[in-house]
């Protein structure tokens, strides 16, 4: 029993060690057996693939090369890792595999030494990738997806509950800053991979895709100069007839935030108690951007203003969260009137929303988006 416990603890420590590092801390071997640090790919968008030369999905080499030629100049790198674990469909040496791929598919992206992607001898790279993006399932509306699901379920009824690689040509998309953005199963449409690559190689689009609502901040105020840049980006948002129906108040006064938080704590003791990390009523952010609009109208234009500011903040390494709850509290609690008074809101305007802003102390994953809500009317 003691021996088993020791083995289990070592396995857990190994997984934690991989999870604690970043992708740029990992070293792999190229097709000549030389060590290559993935830090060499910092600033690049990566599509990492485990491949095979005798698989039903092998023709995807053509599509991968097409993606490489289309986006390589924009910063895409495709890293190909042949693997013989699935039906022994990648036989031969890496030299033979490379000759086959160049002769039949004219690939130009780099191939690396053969690896295992599952099991005791799996590559630390794929241990890391699987820890970041587990198996999300096959598309059962797709014939190939149904086939893969039926085949694998016969082998293991609970196969879908494990994060391991299921077959050849599983792909992982990695952003320029090393985040594992997405995992694709071999049956996923390459057109979807193409769209996601576009969203990452384009700096404006990648900034949009990276932005998350941040609810944990470092105890470090944002520099005044950065707040000025963010607000300038905000007021350059479009508005109907260029009316610019917004009033903006940027709160840098830490005492004002602390004082109104004391009012909030007195009125919401149970809610405060539930949050073990509670520092202030604005998701603990050190700075606030308060947006006011006319009592009637202006909300749409103010929304465009806020999106500009949140994306500008994201591009500068800052986090934001659009808050509604604190606004309702401030507008309804007489004890908090001093806060609104300090904002000096003109008559006829009301506090619409608050952007919490600061240096992020978390990196939340993106929540799923429902593409079925979109329809194209042609």
How would you characterize the overall build of this protein?
This protein is α+β, with helices and mostly antiparallel strands and 378 residues long. 39% of the residues lie in helices and 15% in strands. It is built from 13 helices and ten strands. It has helices at residues 2-20, 60-71, 94-105, 124-132, 143-155, 190-201, 203-210, 224-235, 254-267, 269-274, 299-315, 325-332, 337-343, and strands at 27-29, 35-37, 45-51, 76-82, 171-174, 180-184, 247-251, 287-294, 319-323, 349-358. The strands form three sheets. The protein has a four-stranded mixed sheet with strand order 4-3-5-6, covered by helices on one side. A four-stranded antiparallel sheet has the order 7-8-10-9. Helix 6 (190-201) packs across helix 7 (203-210). The longest helix has 19 residues, at 2-20. Residues 1-20 have low confidence and may be disordered.
What labels would you give this structure?
378 residues; disordered N terminus; single chain; 10 strands; four-stranded antiparallel β-sheet
What is the topology?
Elements: H1 2-20, E1 27-29, E2 35-37, E3 45-51, H2 60-71, E4 76-82, H3 94-105, H4 124-132, H5 143-155, E5 171-174, E6 180-184, H6 190-201, H7 203-210, H8 224-235, E7 247-251, H9 254-267, H10 269-274, E8 287-294, H11 299-315, E9 319-323, H12 325-332, H13 337-343, E10 349-358
Parallel strand pairs: 3-4
Antiparallel strand pairs: 1-2, 3-5, 5-6, 7-8, 8-10, 9-10
Helix pairs in contact: 2-6, 6-7, 8-11
């Amino acid at each position: 029993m003691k021996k088993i416990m020791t083995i289990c603890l070592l396995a857990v420590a190994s997984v934690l060690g991989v999870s604690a590092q970043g992708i740029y801390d990992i070293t792999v071997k190229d097709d000549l057996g030389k060590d290559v640090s993935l830090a060499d790919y910092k600033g690049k968008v990566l599509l990492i693939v485990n491949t095979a030369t005798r698989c039903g999905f092998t023709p995807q080499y053509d599509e991968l090369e097409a993606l490489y030629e289309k986006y390589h100049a924009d910063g895409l790198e495709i890293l190909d890792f042949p693997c013989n674990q699935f039906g022994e469909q990648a036989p031969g040496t890496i030299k033979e595999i490379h000759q086959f791929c160049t002769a039949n598919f004219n690939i130009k992206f780099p191939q690396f030494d053969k690896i295992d992607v599952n099991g005791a001898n799996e590559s630390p790279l794929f241990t890391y990738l699987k820890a970041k993006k587990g198996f999300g399932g096959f598309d059962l509306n797709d014939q190939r997806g149904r086939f893969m699901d039926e085949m694998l379920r016969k082998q293991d009824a609970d196969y879908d509950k494990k994060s391991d690689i299921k077959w050849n040509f599983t792909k992982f998309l990695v952003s320029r800053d090393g985040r594992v953005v997405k995992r694709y199963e071999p049956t996923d449409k390459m057109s979807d991979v193409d769209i996601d690559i576009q969203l990452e190689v384009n700096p404006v689009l990648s900034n949009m895709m990276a932005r998350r609502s941040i609810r944990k901040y470092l105890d470090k105020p944002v520099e005044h100069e950065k707040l000025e840049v963010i607000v300038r980006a905000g007021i350059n948002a479009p508005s109907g007839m260029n009316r610019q129906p917004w009033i903006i108040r940027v709160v840098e006064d830490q005492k004002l935030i602390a004082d109104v938080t004391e009012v909030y704590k007195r009125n919401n003791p149970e809610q405060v108690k539930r949050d073990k990390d509670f520092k202030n009523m604005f998701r603990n952010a050190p700075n606030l951007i308060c947006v006011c609009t006319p009592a009637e109208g202006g909300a749409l234009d103010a929304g465009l203003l806020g999106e500009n500011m949140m994306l500008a903040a994201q591009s500068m390494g800052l986090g934001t969260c659009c808050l509604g709850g604190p606004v309702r509290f401030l507008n309804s609690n007489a004890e908090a009137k001093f806060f609104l008074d300090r904002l000096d809101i003109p008559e006829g305007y009301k506090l619409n929303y608050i952007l919490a802003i600061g240096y992020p102390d978390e990196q939340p994953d993106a929540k799923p988006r429902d593409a079925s809500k979109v329809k194209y009317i042609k």
